[in-house]
Amino acid sequence: MIASTINLLIIEDNPGDVRILEEIFKKIRDFSFNLDFSMRLSDGLKKLEKTAFDLILLDLSLPDSEKSETLSILLDKNPNVPIVILTGLNDKGGAIDSVRKGAQDYLIKGEINEAVLSRSILYAIERFKIEQKLQKSEENYKHERDNLMNILASLMDGVIIINKHYDIEYANPILINEFGSIEGKKCYQYFFNFSDVCLTCEIFNVNIFKRQIFVKKNQKTFDFIGTPLRNPDGSISKLGILHDITKLKQVEKRLKEINKLKSEFLNRASHELKTPLIAIKGFSDLVLRLYKDELNVDIISKLEEINQGCERLENIINDLLQSSRLESTDLKPKLEREDLSFLIKYCVNDLNTIAGKREQSISIDLPDSIMFRFEKEEIYNVISNLLINAIKYTPPKGGIHIKIETVDDFVVFSIKDDGIGFTEEQKDKIFQKFGKIERYGQGLDLETDGTGLGLYISKKIVESHGGKIWMESKGRNMGSTFYFSLPYEEKRTHPILTL
Questions:
Q1: What is the Cα–Cα distance from 421 to 417, expressed in whole angstroms?
Q2: Which of 265, 158, 143 is nearest to 221 (CA)?
Q3: Confidence (pTM)
Q4: CATH for 156-244?
Q5: Does domain 336-487 sit in CATH 3.40.50.2000?
Q6: Domains in the chain: boundaries
Q7: Would you identify the CATH topology of the domain 5-135?
Q8: Which residues of the chain are modeled with pLDDT < 70?
Q9: What pLDDT, in 10s, does the model give residues 354-412?
Q10: Rounded CA gap, 215 and 219, in Å?
């Protein structure tokens, strides 16, 4: 906003022109002007050092400066005051050139009246303020851009900016050291030596682009994350971060090899263990069947204990094998359309006898049918394991409640008991491998036989289906609720892009 009183410095060496300007200023009614005059440029510069002026009216032809240098000297000494040039009719070209060099406007002597003068002064002041704001904005933008570039240059990951035409606008030193100069390169040329856009490229089709890419020319694998970057002109480029995960991939490959060796060892060891187990259990069964009437009670009891021990050891071997199998990253569930409600009822029916022996009640809250894709045998194992745990860790005459509901795109199974519950420390342990919670010697009437692999196996099964398993408990003797979720449909995943 322009002040009601405007301070003007008029640098003009012709007294006649000065008097004419004074008379014109007297006729302007909308604003008042404080006028100060100098006949020499040097005098004007001294006044500018002492007094704040809103605008300068400048005649380029002064006795103490060359005409071609007057404006540049004044701009150099006082860049923060707008200037309007006073010129003769025969020097209109020079005045226009002065505007190009930094003056806000020019006035032709002999053609000046109060309307032209006031409009030129007001426009010059406003235009100068706008230019200063733009300049400040540009300086801030440049400062922020320089800071950003300094940050990007200091990163240990590669950084690249790609425009919508796939031209590389920027690459930080890490990336240039890895792949060379970006000058005149498209991204598909730079990384893959392709002559056209990659067939599987989706970088501008999605908001956030995430993909693993393998670059053959340097035999490296990168995690690539691209995010939109709005340019000052409103166009959108992509800012990409490339994190070198080659060593991680090598470690993963080695771990897969070790895991394969471990699986082979477990398979071999289980075979070697099962062979004598079958013989031991078979002979004990044979003795019991053929000679039970001839044996005393103690021997029969010992033979039955041998059978039970063989069964426990066989269960442990089977659990170890299944946990090893589920750790394979290549293992995928065999999904088929099944009825989860029916499967839960089937599990409850199988285990009702065990719960009945402990006088426990099992209630269910299920829809008549809920059909979607999952591997029936694996999810049966999960439900059975959770239900067996609820029966084992709930004291006699306790209650167990099973429920399923849909939440967003997931089916959520829950099994709640009023058993002994879990402490915070125990919650962190139960889904780990061999994460069995020891209950012996606590005065609880519980059946606690197990390997500590059941919940770990359940977790792996649920996660292989794209779901999640968790539990809630308010503390010891306050019961617990176990949950797992399964998606209605398979989630789309992006494969590694190998080019």
A1: 9
A2: 158
A3: 0.47
A4: 3.30.450.20
A5: no
A6: 5-135, 156-244, 249-326, 336-487
A7: Rossmann fold (3.40.50)
A8: 1-3, 324-325, 327-331, 434-451, 489-499
A9: 888 889 999 999 999 999 999 999 999 999 999 998 998 888 889 999 999 998 889 99
A10: 6
